[in-house]
Design brief:
Elements lengths: L1 H17 L7 H31 L3 H4 L4 H9 L3 H13 L4 H9 L4 H14 L2 H11 L4 H15 L3 H10 L2 E6 L5 E6 L2 H24 L6 H16 L16 H10 L21 E5 L1 H6 L8 E3 L3 E2 L2 H7 L5 E5 L8 E3 L6 H10 L14 E4 L3 H4 L7 E4 L1 H10 L2 E2 L8 E2 L11 H7 L25 E3 L23
Parallel strand pairs: 3-6
Antiparallel strand pairs: 1-2, 3-4, 4-5, 7-12, 8-9, 10-11
Helix pairs in contact: 2-5, 4-5, 5-7, 7-8, 7-9, 8-9, 11-12
Length: about 475
């Protein structure tokens, strides 16, 4: 075994030594990269399998480091956290034959194996294990981790104790990176994360809008940092920095525009403990009504804050009394067939979309900041329906609008393909016409709360009856209409 591993290592070393990336075509580079990645996964699988034995035989007095994770991190040049994940994953594998088999085949990366094994071990259910292994083949790592957290939360015998443990382990680290940049890393409970997100999102949106008006384009992460700095300065009573950022002052023309626009040009102060925040920037709590009444989730029920993660039902019940959450409950009347004659979705439709598709619809895309795309151009239909909308991130929206890409037929997460792909809808246009129209085939909605608080008799809307279709959620305008926990 040692001789075989040595020979493989030597052959790889010779291949990499001869590799000239500038001498191969782009297609060849992608194919070769894929082969090397497959080899890397197999090597990582072997390292993961060995990690538990290294941990079992670790002797601090012999190797000079406290733990096996520290020893592996030092030898591999990785973080202790990554090495610890490998050790823990390795220890779980004997009880997870499907995960181990996928790892040995090279189907799972170390990060995927860590997420899947932790959730599968918590669930202790072969069907769940198989589902997570299958999901890893198509989902992005953030999506896989999100579903794994959902599975682990559903299997948690004491979610409140877990939430308290997360609170005790809350942490915020500040350090200077190797590039000289000041770096901030924080972790805590989902409800704490939701409160921080709520405070930041409104400011991020305003900075983003101001940048677009001034003709500037920067990464979303840059605007998020500016929002954090604005929030800190506001808390200290210091005037907010220009929307161009401390290192990128706004131009004279932008300053004049800001004067014309008045105070709204700068992110407004965010008062502490405000009881009437802008609903557009509130967190979205997704919960099954049965779980709310019972006080705990069961089976496939949900109790989570969108984009943050699962929370215990008692914690959610406590949050319902605070003006920090939009509430979506999986029981109510039909909102799918509300047709709005405006270009964009109504508030009720946006909440319904957030429930059914929390992020970009494109398979493998982890982005949660989305635009609502009409499957058929609004200029042709002159209406907005839920079963004709797909949430897309800015990048994929541009691919569709400017380069002819399109989502394949179906519902939920699915691939987006270029115009020459045989799965592209344009190749099925004639076939679809001959089959006749079918509105219900393109959407599989979730049930939702009573939508009578977002009435359909407003100007520019109409309602059609379709009792066989399930309902989608909308937002009650009156907080007093929220179901109260038992």
């Amino acid at each position: 075994m040692f001789q075989e591993a040595t020979e493989i290592r030597n052959r790889l070393a010779a291949l990499v030594d001869r590799l000239d990336p500038d001498a191969v075509s782009g297609t060849a580079a992608r194919d070769l990269w894929g082969l090397l990645d497959a080899s890397e996964r197999l090597c990582a699988a072997g390292k993961t399998l060995l990690a538990r034995r290294i941990a079992q035989t670790h002797r601090p007095e012999t190797v000079g480091v406290k733990s096996a994770a520290e020893d592996l991190a030092r030898r591999a040049g990785t973080t202790v956290g990554a090495a610890r994940d490998a050790v823990e994953t390795s220890a779980r594998l004997p009880e997870l034959p499907l995960v181990e088999a996928a790892l040995r085949r090279g189907d799972l990366s170390p990060a995927q194996a860590a997420a899947v094994s932790a959730a599968a071990a918590a669930a202790a259910d072969p069907a769940t294990e198989a589902r997570l292994v299958e999901l890893a083949a198509s989902a992005s790592l953030p999506e896989l981790r999100e579903e794994a957290a959902r599975v682990a939360a559903a299997a948690d015998p004491d979610p409140e104790a877990t939430n308290r443990r997360l609170h005790r382990r809350r942490a915020l680290r500040r350090f200077t990176g190797t590039d000289g940049a000041w770096t901030l890393i924080a972790k805590g409970t989902p409800q704490a994360g939701a409160a921080i997100n709520t405070a930041l999102d409104q400011i991020i949106d305003q900075i983003f809008a101001a940048a677009r008006r001034d003709g500037r384009r920067e990464a979303y992460e840059a605007y998020a940092f500016d929002a954090l700095l604005t929030l800190v300065k506001t808390a200290h009573g210091t005037p907010a920095p220009p929307t161009g950022g401390a290192d990128n002052p706004v131009s004279l023309s932008a300053e004049r525009a800001a004067i014309k626009r008045g105070p709204a040009a700068e992110p407004p102060p965010v008062p502490a403990g405000s009881s009437r925040p802008n609903p557009r920037f509130l967190a979205l709590l997704r919960i099954d009504i049965e779980a709310l009444r019972r006080g705990a989730v069961a089976g496939q029920e949900l109790c989570e804050i969108k984009g943050v993660g699962p929370v215990p039902v008692p914690v959610a019940a406590g949050l319902l009394g605070q003006a920090v959450l939009k509430l979506v409950i999986t029981r109510g009347v039909d909102v799918l067939n509300v047709t709005h004659l405006g270009r964009g979705p109504t508030a009720a439709q946006k909440i319904a979309l957030a429930w059914a598709s929390p992020g970009c619809t494109v398979a493998g895309c982890w982005r949660t900041r989305v635009e609502h795309d009409h499957r058929q151009p609004w200029k042709d239909t002159r209406h907005t329906r839920l079963d004709e909308l797909d949430p897309l991130c800015e990048f994929h929206h541009d691919l569709k609008t400017r380069h002819g890409w399109a989502l394949v037929a179906g519902t939920g997460k699915r691939p987006m393909v270029p115009p020459d792909d045989p799965r592209h809808p344009r190749h099925h246009t004639q076939e679809d016409r001959s089959a006749g129209p079918d509105r219900t085939a393109s959407h599989d909605p979730a049930p939702g709360i009573d939508t009578t608080h977002a009435p359909d008799h407003r100007r520019g809307r109409r309602r059609t009856a379709a009792p066989e279709q399930r309902a989608l959620p909308a937002l009650p305008s009156d907080p007093s209409t929220h179901p109260q926990p038992p």
